[in-house]
Design goal:
- There is one protein chain.
- This protein has helices at 21-32, 44-57, 77-90, 116-143, 169-188, 219-231, and strands spanning 12-16, 36-41, 67-71, 96-99, 147-152, 196-201, 246-248, 251-253.
- It is α/β, with parallel strands linked by helices.
- Helix 3 packs parallel to helix 4 and helix 4 runs parallel beside helix 5 (169-188).
- The relative contact order is 0.15.
- Bound molecules: NADP nicotinamide-adenine-dinucleotide phosphate.
- NADP nicotinamide-adenine-dinucleotide phosphate binds next to helix 1.
- NADP nicotinamide-adenine-dinucleotide phosphate (NAP) binds at residues 17, 19-23, 41-43, 46, 73-75, 100-103, 125, 152, 154, 203, 205-206, 208-211, 215.
């Protein structure tokens, strides 16, 4: 773990997948909104270069910005639990937890064709680590009655429309699990009545390492709704279902 030492009164946002792509762009938006950051990803060097580039980008505008990095392979449940516990015992209670890590499954990963290894890889990274990170880091947020959890899901995880219409089985099913976790947890925590909000977001097809260079959306467009959910005024969310749902372009979409 690399950490700054200066004490800070700024609020903390934890961002997994913060080394690149949508996670890094979300971290950038949170830094611009005045948050300190704890970035989680697998590759320590990429995390450090994300940290350095954010520190230099915000040197003039965010005095005292503190960024810690926490490299861990989120496929490994024991290591994930250890890192999450380390974060929860050494850093301040976060106001924001954004989970933006993830992997796509292999192209031909149909249910009848995929392997145990591929199934477990994708479910461990995309779903089991989401449970562990939320289970370890969000209780303090719920107790503080002041927390926003935003989890990058995918429209490929929807039960309606083309969401789970076959193919990429481990990926689609992991994201359906994320959608279900979000709804279930929101009900368990009073649907926002206790100051704790938990939502899923579909960024749409975005130009990242996962989305590829020909995707229609920029990272700024893909990350906009997650940043809004993490920082925006709750009143802007509309009158019904203000949490525990799947969002796309600031609108609730059916699972
Ligand atoms: N891009 C799209 O079109 C799109 C569409 C729908 C949904 N999504 C979802 O949006 C989220 C972000 O996607 P993205 O496009 O930004 O992906 P990306 O550019 O491929 O970045 C993936 C991120 O996840 C981290 N990660 C992957 N495997 C990991 C592991 N085993 N342990 C720790 N960290 C790991 C990577 O860390 P390292 O740098 O250390 O590898 C990286 O920070 C994902 O949940 C994805 O499913 C994306």
């Amino acid at each position: 773990m690399h950490s700054e030492t200066a004490p800070t009164s700024r609020s903390l946002a934890i961002v997994s997948g913060g080394s690149r792509g949508l996670g890094l762009e979300t971290a950038r938006g949170l830094a611009a909104a005045g948050f300190d950051l704890a970035l989680i990803a697998k590759d320590a060097q990429r995390l450090e270069s994300a940290r350095q580039s954010l520190l230099s980008e915000f040197a003039a505008t965010q005095t005292g910005l503190t960024i810690t990095t926490h490299p861990v392979d989120l496929e490994d449940q024991v290591a994930t639990r250890k890192t999450a516990t380390e974060i929860s015992t050494t850093l301040a209670t976060p106001k924001v937890l954004v989970l933006a890590h993830g992997v796509m499954s292999e192209k031909m990963s149909k249910t009848l064709r995929t392997t145990d290894v591929e199934w477990n890889r994708v479910i461990n990274i995309n779903l089991n680590s989401v449970f562990i990170l939320v289970n370890a880091l969000a209780p303090a947020m719920a107790d503080a009655r002041d927390g926003r959890v935003v989890i990058y899901s995918a429209c490929l995880g929807r039960m309606s429309g083309p969401g789970s219409a076959g193919g990429l089985a481990p990926y689609r099913i992991s994201k359906a699990g994320v959608n279900s976790l979000v709804r279930n947890l929101a009900h368990e925590t009073g649907l926002g009545a206790r100051g704790f909000y938990v939502d899923a977001v579909c960024p749409n097809h975005t130009r990242t390492d996962m989305g590829g260079p020909d995707a229609p959306r920029s990272v700024e467009e893909g990350a906009e709704t997650a940043i809004w959910l993490a920082t925006g005024d709750i009143a802007q969310r509309g009158s019904e279902n203000t949490t525990g749902v799947l969002w796309e372009d600031r609108k609730v979409v059916p699972w």
